[in-house]
């Protein structure tokens, strides 16, 4: 039983140690890139504050859009494992302490995340919305509601019958809180409405309290597995992670693309990688999301071509670094040995596919700016020319070069 007293701390410590090893491995592969990326973000942020942002820009709405998902996204880590000793140890008092420590841990981590976002946004807040005291008050309000939303999430997880409306309520509540907070009308009717809505949610969730001793183990294990898988998938973008998996999805609406390229031996790997891209959940999903998000971000960046170009190339680059993962799926497949083809075709097939995807994304991102900007000419054509140049250089030069370098390193090791 003494082990159960320290079970949460032991699992948290092991999770931190494993996360630290992955972070160190990623840092070794990236060299100075994180520092350069941080410097680039700070420089762009400073130019945004001093030069690019027009005086009438709706900063309150921008902060609400950024902080609503920060409040609503409440990942709840429990460190529960499928073969958990709790199944064999009916000790309600120790279980209660375990859940209390779990809630405290998650509340601390997520409040630190809110504080980090508010610290990053503090120059914008203090320049346009209020002084330092107002910023501190905003942080207190956001952290209070973050803990409250985490408490709602805990009730959702432990509820006997989770409902689709629960996440909707959390997102709507987060949006209302951020709009109410940053629009500057705290008191009067808005404050009464906020207190009334909070009281309603408390009563609503207390009525749905599960019976004493009820623990939805399957749901908790699934939630924990999904969170850990997300971390592994993030790390797999930079290093090899053996635990990471991927989900196959049949996208019938995109099947017509498999008629291309023509059925010829030199297109074998291109065809294989293209089918993989269309059938697997990632990186197809992330490419689609980055295209949409970048296009939406460009709608509000018309006032500065430099800012629009930065966002545009950042979206292209974030997609480009994900795409070589397609080749990793087939590294150990037996049919590569059954049907040997020239090794250069692997590089050529991947290079062609990445080139086609980036060319298409360069064009699709600019559809929304072309339709919404008051003066899309010549900015949109210039961005498109830059995007196609970036696509060609990355796919035709960067990918073959990195694959030759990786092969040389593996040959030296063997």
Automatic annotation (TrEMBL):
Ranges that cross the membrane: 21-45, 57-76, 103-126, 132-152, 187-203, 284-301, 307-326, 347-371, 377-397
Lineage, opening ranks: Bacteria, Bacillati, Bacillota, Bacilli, Bacillales
Q: Which residues form the signal peptide?
A: none
Quote the InterPro entries the UniProt record gives: EcsB_ABC
Arranged from A to Z, the UniProt key words for this protein are: Membrane, Transmembrane, Transmembrane helix
Q: Report what the protein is called.
A: ABC-2 type transport system permease protein
């Amino acid at each position: 039983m003494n082990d159960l007293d320290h079970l949460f701390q032991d699992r948290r410590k092991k999770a931190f140690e494993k996360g630290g090893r992955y972070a160190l491995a990623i840092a070794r592969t990236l060299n100075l890139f994180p520092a350069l990326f941080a410097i680039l973000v700070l420089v762009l942020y400073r130019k945004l504050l001093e030069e690019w942002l027009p005086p009438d820009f709706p900063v309150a709405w921008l902060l609400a859009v950024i902080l609503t998902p920060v409040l609503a996204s409440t990942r709840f880590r429990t460190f529960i494992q499928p073969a958990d000793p709790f199944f064999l140890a009916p000790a309600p008092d120790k279980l209660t302490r375990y859940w209390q420590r779990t809630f405290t841990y998650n509340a601390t981590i997520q409040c630190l995340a809110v504080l980090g976002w508010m610290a990053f946004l503090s120059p914008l807040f203090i320049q346009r919305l209020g002084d330092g005291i107002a910023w501190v008050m905003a942080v207190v309000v956001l952290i209070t509601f973050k803990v409250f939303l985490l408490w709602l999430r805990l009730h959702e997880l432990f509820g006997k019958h989770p409902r689709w409306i629960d996440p909707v309520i959390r997102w709507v509540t987060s949006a209302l809180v951020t709009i109410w907070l940053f629009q500057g009308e705290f008191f009067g009717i808005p404050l009464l409405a906020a207190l009334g809505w909070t009281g309603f949610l408390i009563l609503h969730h207390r009525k749905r309290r599960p019976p004493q001793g009820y623990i939805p183990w399957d749901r908790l294990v699934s939630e924990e597995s999904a969170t850990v898988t997300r971390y592994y998938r993030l790390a797999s973008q930079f290093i090899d992670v053996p635990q990471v998996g991927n989900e196959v999805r049949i996208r019938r609406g995109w099947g017509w693309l498999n008629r291309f390229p023509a059925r010829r031996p030199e297109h074998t790997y291109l065809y294989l990688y293209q089918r993989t891209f269309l059938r697997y959940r990632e990186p197809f999903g992330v490419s689609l999301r980055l295209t949409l998000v970048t296009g939406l971000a460009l709608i509000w960046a018309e006032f500065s071509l430099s800012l629009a170009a930065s966002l545009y190339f950042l979206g292209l680059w974030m997609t480009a670094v994900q795409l070589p993962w397609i080749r990793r799926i087939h590294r150990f497949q037996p049919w590569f040995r059954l049907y040997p083809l020239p090794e250069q075709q692997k590089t050529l097939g991947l290079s062609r596919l990445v080139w086609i995807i980036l060319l298409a994304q360069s064009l699709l991102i600019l559809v929304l700016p072309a339709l919404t900007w008051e003066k899309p000419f010549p900015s949109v054509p210039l961005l498109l020319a830059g995007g196609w140049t970036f696509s060609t250089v990355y796919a035709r030069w960067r990918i073959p070069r990195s694959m030759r370098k990786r092969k040389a390193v593996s040959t030296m090791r063997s």
